[in-house]
Write a structure and sequence with these properties.
CATH class of the largest domain: Alpha Beta
Radius of gyration: 29 Å
CATH topology of the largest domain: Heat Shock Protein 90
CATH superfamily of the largest domain: Histidine kinase-like ATPase, C-terminal domain
Number of strands: 22
Distance between the termini: 52 Å
CATH architecture of the largest domain: 2-Layer Sandwich
Strand content: 15-25%
Structural class: alpha+beta
Largest sheet: 9 strands, mixed
Shape: flat
């Protein structure tokens, strides 16, 4: 390659230097992850986390949030208040310094905080930079101070406004900048409620509240039991092995280790690890230490007390964690998170600290509660037997060629494309509907997998039973990702898995059974955004040779109103009998199910990418989804029946954060 001659010189004048908070506004995603819904709500977290840090440090007792009618949000605590004195290095007030300079704060070992969720010291200043307006009010010794900003730039000097009834604290009010957050600048009340509830669980003795001035809604939280209350809440609707909750809180060196554990009768694990009140969904050293110690202590107890025979293998970690609900909360002075999103804790010493506490105190707990210990070991032993049975069943299925990645289920009508990114599979209820879907599909990109027979309720089933269910095996085989310890998302053959069921109670039930399976055993395909719900029409409005499809009763009424208004505008005499179909001059047909549609109708309404309505299934809050699936598919039949009957018409399944 020859070197090109360029007339323009490349010199220092071409190097851009961003000062102050300019880098944040230039590249907001680097600091808050996104400029969509998640980014807007991350701003709340950055400010409220500072208030929670005051509570963790023992200086604050409450955090109050007000979602204002004018689009702003106000976060107030009764902590020490951000200092307002002149900062020696900047020559400005410390308050202005903290809010306008990146990496300025009390979390860098200067004695402001021993423990904090903030690591990089950029939170408040980033929120300031990304806010159209930002108002900081601080109370120190009964005196109120205030400073205003616009897009990170001071709009006023620091003002001393005089005495106030409050002895101390900080209030931050901000308005997200719509030129940055173009998708939305509205705050979600439910998100704030969920965040504050979690913080109240994790900081026992702190009071949190939220008021939504737009609607008048309000909630407050206070949990004396802290993470014990959290575990109890996670186990609501599940049968626990024992009412007692193992709990320990101990300081090791300069860190605090707090753990709560309780087992239930389900087959899934719910362990939530936190570091300085920050959820670390990818785990880290605290989770590794917990799991290692839990496995060791239970195996040691089982051996010592003759609950495992001499020739039996040790219980595996997976066996022992079946039905486990636990919260691990570590507080440490210098957390080493991986990245600004703080998904994983990296401090090596924390593994040792957690193991030390669990080895000693969980062993005490088992010795002092032999009945509970026997139930835990008994459940783990059953899990081990089921695991071996599942392996044998899987090996048997593999020998028959079903899960070896070579063959596909005989009932599958596959698409010709081999590119997962453009391929989609419809899981269709009923032979008749599947036949219409096969005839009407685009066979280059659309595969059809009919459901024939009952779908297994996987909420109450282990893997060994799943391998005996033809419908489950067919899906595992078709998707190409495997299951259990062989699951690999890289093998996914379709980037759209579309559940297509009738728009009635039975259809909702089948969709829920499928979602339960995906959520419990293939969660990554849901988290990856690969699962969708198709929305078939409920009515056909027939007017002469033309047809209009509508998807619910509300849309039907609106469509009839539109036709009637059009006829009136054209001077047509309207039947005043009150029969709306006569007034509109149409007939309305209701589809009882997908099987009533022919191939052309099914393609036109539900499968054509240009016309269809697909709802992507997202797990916004795994805890909430877990509680919903427990309610829907657990042993409490009355709860399930009530839930489905009252929500069957809401095909967007709002309760599942879809």
């Amino acid at each position: 390659m020859t070197k090109q001659t360029v007339d323009q010189a490349y010199d220092g004048s071409q190097i851009q230097v961003l000062e102050g908070l300019e880098p944040v506004r230039k590249r907001p995603g680097m600091y808050i992850g996104s400029t969509g819904y998640d980014g807007v709500h991350h701003l709340i977290k950055e400010i409220a986390d500072n208030s929670i840090d005051e509570a963790i440090a023992g200086y604050a007792t409450r955090v109050d949030v007000v979602i204002q009618e004018d689009g702003g949000i106000k976060i107030t605590d009764d902590g020490r208040g951000i200092p307002v004195d002149k900062h020696a290095k900047t020559g400005k007030s410390t308050l202005e310094t903290v809010l306008t300079i990146l990496h300025a704060g009390g979390k860098f070992g200067g004695g402001g905080y021993k423990v904090s969720s903030g690591l990089h010291g950029v939170g408040s200043s980033v929120v300031n930079a990304l806010s159209e307006r930002f108002i900081a009010e601080v109370v120190k010794a009964g005196q109120l101070y205030r400073i205003d900003f616009e897009r990170g730039v001071p709009a006023t000097d620091l003002q001393k406004l005089g005495k106030t009834d409050r002895p101390q604290g900080t209030s931050i009010t901000f308005y997200p900048d719509p030129t940055i957050f173009k998708e939305t600048v509205e705050f979600d009340y439910k998100w704030v409620v969920s965040y504050l509830r979690h913080q109240a669980y994790l900081t026992k003795g702190v009071y949190t509240s939220v008021v939504d001035e737009r609607t008048g809604d309000r909630q407050a939280f206070y949990f004396d039991g802290g993470i014990q209350s959290y575990v109890k809440q996670l186990n609501i609707g599940k049968d626990v092995l024992d009412d007692s909750i193992f709990y320990v809180e101990r300081q090791v060196e300069d860190s605090m280790i707090e753990i709560a554990v309780q087992y239930n009768d389900t087959y899934v694990e719910m362990v939530k690890p936190f570091a300085n009140n920050v959820l670390t969904p990818d785990g880290g050293t605290h989770l590794i230490g917990f799991r290692s110690a839990l496995t060791r202590v239970i195996n040691d107890y089982a051996r010592k007390n003759g609950l495992l025979k001499e020739k039996e293998d040790n219980l595996t970690g997976d066996d022992i964690r079946e039905g486990l609900t636990a919260i691990i909360l570590v507080k440490l002075p210098d957390p080493q998170f991986e990245g600004q999103t703080k998904n994983k804790l990296g401090n090596p010493e924390i593994r040792r600290y957690v193991e030390q506490v669990m080895n000693e105190y969980f062993a005490y707990y088992l010795e002092e509660n032999p009945n509970v210990a026997k139930k835990i070991v008994g459940k783990a032993t059953l899990a081990a037997r089921a695991r071996k049975a599942a392996r044998a069943a899987r090996d048997n299925v593999i020998r028959k060629g079903a899960l070896d990645g070579m063959g596909l289920p005989g009932k599958l009508w596959d698409c010709s494309s081999k590119k997962p990114s453009e391929s989609e599979i419809y899981i269709v209820e009923g032979n008749s509907a599947a036949g219409s879907a096969k005839e009407g599909r685009d066979n280059r990109t659309q595969a059809i997998l009919p459901l024939r027979g009952k779908v297994l309720n996987t909420e109450r089933a282990r893997l060994d039973r799943m391998f005996a269910n033809k419908e489950i095996v067919a899906m595992i085989q078709a998707f190409g990702v495997g299951i259990g310890d062989q699951f690999d998302i890289e093998g996914l053959r379709y980037h759209k898995i579309i559940i297509m069921t009738d728009a009635d109670v039975d259809g909702s039930h089948i969709a829920t059974l499928l979602l339960t399976f995906f959520f419990r055993y293939m969660r990554e395909i849901v988290e990856g955004g690969y699962v969708y719900l198709a929305k078939p029409p409920l009515f056909s409005i027939n007017r002469g040779q033309s047809k209009q499809y509508v998807y619910d009763e509300t849309s039907l009424e609106a469509a009839l109103d539109e036709v009637i208004a059009d006829r009136k505008a054209r001077g047509v005499n309207i039947d005043e009998s009150g029969d709306r179909m006569k007034q509109a001059g149409v007939t309305v047909s209701r589809f009882k199910g997908l099987g009533e549609m022919d191939a052309e109708q099914l393609w036109e309404t539900t499968m054509n990418p240009e016309n269809r309505i697909l709802t992507q299934v997202n797990i916004e809050d795994a805890e909430r989804a877990d509680a919903i699936f427990t309610k829907l598919m657990g042993d409490e039949v009355s709860l399930r029946k009530s839930f489905i009957q009252t929500r069957a018409k809401d095909v967007d399944l709002e309760e599942l954060d879809i």
